[in-house]
From TrEMBL, chain A:
This is Sarcosine oxidase subunit alpha. Belongs to the GcvT family. Residues 908-994 form the Aminomethyltransferase C-terminal domain. It holds the Pfam family GCV_T. The keyword Transferase applies. One of its GO terms (molecular function) is transaminase activity. Keywords: Aminotransferase, Oxidoreductase, Transferase. GO terms for biological process: tetrahydrofolate metabolic process. Signal peptide: none annotated. It comes from Salinisphaera hydrothermalis (strain C41B8). Residues 617-888 form the GCVT N-terminal domain. It comes from the Bacteria. Residues 519-602 form the SoxA A3 domain.
TrEMBL record, chain B:
InterPro entries: SoxD, SoxD_sf. The lineage of its organism: Bacteria, Pseudomonadati, Pseudomonadota, Gammaproteobacteria, Salinisphaerales. This is Sarcosine oxidase subunit delta. GO terms for molecular function: sarcosine oxidase activity. Transmembrane segments: none annotated. It comes from the Bacteria. It comes from Salinisphaera hydrothermalis (strain C41B8). Gene3D superfamilies: Folate-binding superfamily. GO terms for biological process: tetrahydrofolate metabolic process.
Automatic annotation (TrEMBL), chain C:
It comes from the Bacteria. InterPro entries: SoxG, TrmE/GcvT-like. It comes from Salinisphaera hydrothermalis (strain C41B8). Gene3D superfamilies: Heterotetrameric sarcosine oxidase, Probable tRNA modification gtpase trme, domain 1. SUPFAM superfamilies: Folate-binding domain (SSF103025). Residues 1-25 are annotated as: Disordered. This is Sarcosine oxidase subunit gamma. Pfam families: SoxG. Transmembrane segments: none annotated.
Amino acid sequence: MRQTQRLEHGGRIDRSRTIKFTFNGREYTGHPGDTLASALLANGVSIVGRSFKYHRPRGIVGAGPEEPNAIVQVGSGALTRPDQRATQVELFDGLEASTAARLGFDPMGVNNTFSRMLPAGFYYKTFKWPAKYWPNYEKRIRQAAGLGHAPTEADPDRYDHMNAHCDVLVVGGGPAGLAAALRAGRAGARVLLADENAELGGALLSERVQESTRIDGRSYRDWIDTTSAELAAMDNVRVLTRTTAFGNYDHNFLGLMEDKADYRGGPAEGEVRHRLWRVRARRTVLATGALERPLVFGNNDRPGIMTVSAVATYLNRYGVCPGWRAVIFTNNDSAYRTALDLKAAGRDVAAVVDVRCKPSSALVDAAREAGIPIHDSSAIIRARGSRRVKSVQIARVKYGQLTGDYETIACDLVASSGGWSPVVHLHCHIGSKPAWDDVAACFLPGPDNPGQCSAGAVTGQFSLRDALVQGFEQGGAVASELGFEPGDDKAPSAPTPGDVLPIEPFWLAPSERPLSRGPKQFVDYQNDTTAADIALAVREGYESVEHVKRYTAMGFGTDQGKLGNINGMAILAWLLDQSIAETGTTTFRPAYTPISFGAVAGRTADHLFDPIRKTAMHDWHVANGAFFEDVGQWKRPWYYRRVGESMQQAIDRECHATRNSVGVLDASTLGKIEVHGADANRFLDMIYTGGRLKMKTGTCRYGLMLHEDGMIFDDGVTAKLGENHYYLTTTTGGAAGALNWLEQWHQTEWPDMDVFFTSVTDQWATIAVNGPKSRDVLQALCDDIDFERDAFPFMTFRDGTVAGVSARVFRISFTGELAFEINVDANYGRHVWDAVMAAGEPYGITPYGTETMHVLRAEKGFIVAGQDTDGSVTPMDMGMHWAIGKKKTDFIGMRSLSRSDIVAEGRKQYVGLKPRDGQIVLPEGAQLVDDPQAELPMPMIGHVSSSYYSDTLGHAFALAVVKNGRSRHGEIIYSPQPDGTVIAAEITDPVFYDREGARQYV
Amino acid sequence: MFQIDCPWCGPRDQSEFAYAGEGGIKRPEDPSALTDAEWADYLFMRQNPRGRHHEQWRHVHGCGQFFDVVRQTVTYRIESVDLPGRPALANASGEVR
Amino acid sequence: MSKIKLESPLIDQPEARTGNNGPTNAGVTLVERSFLGHIMLRGRSDDAAFLAACARVFGVEPPTAPNTYAEGNGAVIGWMGPTEWLFMVDSEARAAWLDALREALADVHAGVVDLSGGQTTIGLEGSHALDVLAKGSTLDLHPRVAGAGFCTRSLLAKSAMFLRVIETGHRFEIVVRRSFADYLWQWLVDASGEYGLRILPAESSLALAGLDVAAPRAAATA
């Protein structure tokens, strides 16, 4: 197909090259510099989509982010991009685009015929019952709606985040933004200028090159080129094009998404596709411009009906005229500029239909002189034509009422302008409300956010001259606020605009028929929301603009109401007989335009999704068949499975070896903290439930940490390394929290105590050797420590040399067996581990993982803080009265232990459970009840916190908390399961093995 | 994402900090002397104001220090930052920034 | 007994040990500085006795201006917090420094903690070193803000780090906890990819910036 609508000259496209693309499988051509939309228009393609609900044919309406209709799927396979605005998709050779809806005959077009049966709220009302069928309805409705589809394959591309800091962030590279960046950059400030377009210039690029758009006496294009070059040459200025500032967040933090590859068909090997910029600016200049509103009239959605500014953009930027004979419908002067542009391009302007009475101004008069017929005090009432506009019916109007007969004007292009809406989105993202301005007939930014200001059209300054001056001044002002000295050079100058006739707000063309009976007057094209829908919402009692939005769907979708929302709010205000200011806007939220999930994720995917923390012995575990368990970010060996073994068999084997000979656990992940200072003992005495004042150097004590509410939150061992020097262990998952806890009490409550806490978790590789033969293994590795029972008693430690490496060996036990924990500099961890394995070989030393660790500790009734405790249990609940210092007068949490509800009867208490059927392992978390036949909701009296099968005991067992459990040993309790079965278990003491605790003392 | 002016390190991104609860709550000197109601008041009752909020933050991924912040909970504006009343923790020149 | 072997936390990253023969014009160069002496020194900035005792060993007092480091006697001492400094020395010197510090600080309120096995050091330099850091760090490392002698604890991607500016704008050093080192190395390799990456064989000597010993830098916060 030929580019029949391409003008002979003009535009910023590269006519020396012709590139091919396909749209719904059909091949077309365009030029570099085109967007998909401009190229489709150049090729005379007028239908680019079907509407959401009524499946009406739709054409391109806009030329930028406001486009509601030309929503396309670009590319295929893993690289496909859904819901792209054709107006923002740059054309590249080989581009493939398609629409979800059929553009030819559409069987769902029947919805249009019966549209009076599909008013706002139809789906809510119709598909509400029965609720269980909603998923089916939803699927059908979504299919019919014709939105794009996400790729089904894994995304092969790379995405990136970049944090940036700048003195001045300028959002928008139009005349105001360029002038601001120039001034701030010249002053020496670190400037970041971002613009969503491929090239700088903003709205200027949509202007005809003529006297009235000259800057500093030169063509505006020259000025853009030299300004871009000057900015690029400054070391302190970074310019990002194809970069949309999508969100404005607290404390001058903005999110930008840069397209680094999509515009040319995708990234090359190793390149980044999208980059998310996280910008922290000291000052931000919002020069986001304004978007034109269309006017609302009957059948205003027919292909060939666009905004005036879109027509100007296609003419002047892309060298495309979307029609041959145009009718322009306006309530303000700016449309006349485009009427003159059309005339200059050799196209017929059949009429300018202006709602204003006897308009006269510089532009209006120029149009009149150019021979363009002007119909004043008139409006387009409705458009005719189905697949493309063929004519319009106009009539005289006054105060929103019809005052004359219809006149029909033939045309193939209708351009309407209802005035300009400043792009206040970013300004409003952090809570600032926009303010309605009656004179400019638009919402303007409210009071500036801290550290932010606005410049150019977003402030309602719609002339080029004013935008340049304002941008330049704001750029200088923010730079000097930051201590830079902007020179006294002058702002870029543009010719003084002629006199302007003010805009006359006009929200809805009148009709001789009631709202719901006439041709549809679309407010939101993408959601098929009409003026009649808003009226219906009001009739049904909706008053808040937020509720009307949700009832009518106005402002949802990929365009988020950029084109139609202000019209809709104004119509709502009119229907409610209140002002637009009173009606207000819906909430502006990020993202301004959609951003990709890839950009949000950045590099945080696959193997970099989250840190994998490894111990020094990790590779040994991998090489020896370990299955791993994630504990926080750590990888801990869960169990080591030999060929032919089930998981349970592996655990049984590991348990058996440890109870009967020797097992070894990598315990490096335990939290470890060194404590220094003369007040260390006094401080720790406040932190732990047990006494720390009388500890002797060389000894260890187990301890509980409580929150001030008396609940257990962590436990561990304290070792006294020397006078004023301690070493603490915490749970693996609790390490950071415990250190934070100590620091908080020290820094904020007892800063005068002389004490320091230093994390040494990563410094030490910890090898826990457990079992009756552990002493033999240690003796084989170390000759400078006496391991005999009385020389090295339980709950003490010794420094020495293990396998040639300086080590600290603790005689502590988490299994109830004779046990030693070897701690060495982690760089030697693997060496010492290997030595332990070699020394243990004669005893069949068996590595065990966390699962076996849990079985062994649970057999002994040892708790795991965070598993058997859940922040709601006290030491007494856990039967750990022994862990509380008898003579202590205060420690964190102590006062709470005597609160009335803590000492009350009926608290859940720590017990063991022995299932009646010893082969059944109760699920952890299972709820416990007294009477499994009780009516629902069944009174719950406890839950299972740990549960395993014990090969040593020969049956399954569990740990649990049960109301008054300690006085109920021997009773039967029940656990109803989701499958309807009930597991019965006997309440027992929580210690199942070696109740006297003799084995660890051997 | 806030930017918080650490009294030691200067302005840093919120991601380096951890919120540490309402500020200015002093642990009672002698908890055992308190009634249950008084103790519960210290334990549980917090201001949660709409407006100025005195809170604590910790520069956990920086200098590790706790400090006091006055923040507007409506606008999120941070009005001031201060060390938690420990004159000894002054910087090099002896002044508390 | 078998020969005692040391293992770096980057054991699973062979290129960290051997280098990757990357292009000499690469935008980013990475090198692990393994097995250095890392000594955490605890004391109070306002404790004259502590500062003086340190100065006797080190030559100058530990810097008390936030986010600065000093060099002296072949060691680096970086401010981590008002009561924390990281001492870094060549690996052979570690034991002697530990002894000297423990002896000198025996009678003052101080802590000396060996962390040499608990962290490793990664050198990052090149024309795009700053860009790589910006991908994962919210710090403003522009030379106007983070000048000579700047150091800080912070985050890089999802890991904590201690960062030192060796040469303003293009040469940095990252100290990372052992258990996060493997992740952070892989992240750095990935983030450097688009600029061309050269990995040098691991070294075990300390990187010095040649700071003026007599005059530790003032706070570099702008």
